[in-house]
């Protein structure tokens, strides 16, 4: 069974299933990943209660008044297709339901996934500083 945990207080490098940041050429280390989770305004972890390991997550950054941004959602490949990504997103959108602007960026092939959860398509702008894809140095 998958359980959903709304904090990342006690996670360690051993807490994570293999496979996060799939396809990233220069991914954050697990230690940096933990800092990302712990620095986020909101985080929801999906944990396999059989293994005790985190198999998926979503985070949000927010001013907690008007705006929130969902930068990351991922389910490790071996756990995809079981409804975990949908559940994580629904739970995060519910946490943010009193926030006026809830934004995220995604590739076109994921727009239907988010549209099915009540979001609508938009246009945006971005910068990616690829030299820092693994995270800003402390
Ligand atoms: C996107 C992602 C989080 C989906 O997680 P998942 O646990 O495999 O998805 P679910 O099993 O919850 O799928 C829920 C529904 O969305 C559908 N779906 C999944 N991926 C989809 C996609 N790329 N496009 C459209 N629909 C999709 C599923 O078919 C399912 O439909 P159903 O409810 O009718 O059965 C996962 O594929 C992933 O981690 N991808 C790599 C990272 C990524 O792209 N993250 C998003 C960044 S914006």
TrEMBL record:
InterPro entries in UniProt: Acyl_CoA_acyltransferase (IPR016181), GNAT_dom (IPR000182), NSI-like (IPR045039)
Keywords: Acyltransferase, Transferase
Pfam families in alphabetical order: Acetyltransf_1
Positions of the N-acetyltransferase domain: 2-138
Residues annotated as transmembrane: none
Protein name: GNAT family N-acetyltransferase
Source species: Paenibacillus chibensis
